[in-house]
Request: fold
Amino acid sequence: MKQIGRLRSLLFAPAVRPDFVAKLAKRGADAVVLDCEDATPANAKAEGRANSRRLAPALAAAGCQVMVRVNGQLTEWFVDDIREGLTADLVTVVVPKIETLAGLDAVGTALAAAGFSDLGVMAGIETALGVADARILLAHPLVVAGYFGAEDFIADMGGMRTDGNQEVIFARSTVALAGRLAGVPVLDQVVTDFRNGDRFGREAAEARALGYSGKLCIHPGQVAIANDAFVPTADELDRAQRLLTAYQAASSAGVAAIDFEGQMVDEPLAAQARRIIALATP
Reply:
């Protein structure tokens, strides 16, 4: 299975907009997605997959981690997307609305039949059933990453989206936990109000606090915010290093808990500091 690099920002572009796709390599995203699903209308699916197949090699040659989001496994377009929309240059294929292990098995069968057996799946967890079974779905051997899709989830639930995200906090947390247990990176929901940088930054901070690795981006202006949000600040890194130095000295002296700048520090907080230092490494 191909390895995926850092995923702080995942920038989507409609596969039917070659002018948008041509600019992706200069946007600074950790990975880019040619979207044959939601961003490609039903009457242009063939055009979208043809564009993906034609344009992905150039993006990969420019140094991008390139993915294609196909239509869902149960749609009429899925098989043709796999057969005609993928190339060997991709790092993974994004499959939306994953709900069952049988569905993932069918994706694996389709990939193998098309000659892409080395291509893993980024699984979209964006329905009620998908969230409920996220732990077993993300643990499937075909899955190399996942994302939480709030808009589709709330549509499936019959709920309403709010700026505060209270209606998705359980689902967001569930998917983050499932990714941690499966050992795969998961990315947080889109912000459809793409001109609202403050909201995007707030959601990115929430996502990092929940354990997400990065965030889905639907506009180039969101990329830099995501890239900054999912790495430690200089102050965070400095404090983590000082905390570990003090903690390690105390541990060597047989002390299991210390007072560090007014905070009681033991192994769980030391583990958090190690995580902060690890996040600073590309």
The chain has two domains: 9-229, 234-279. The longest strand covers residues 9-14. The CA atoms of residues 13 and 219 lie 8 Å apart. The two ends are 21 Å apart (CA to CA).
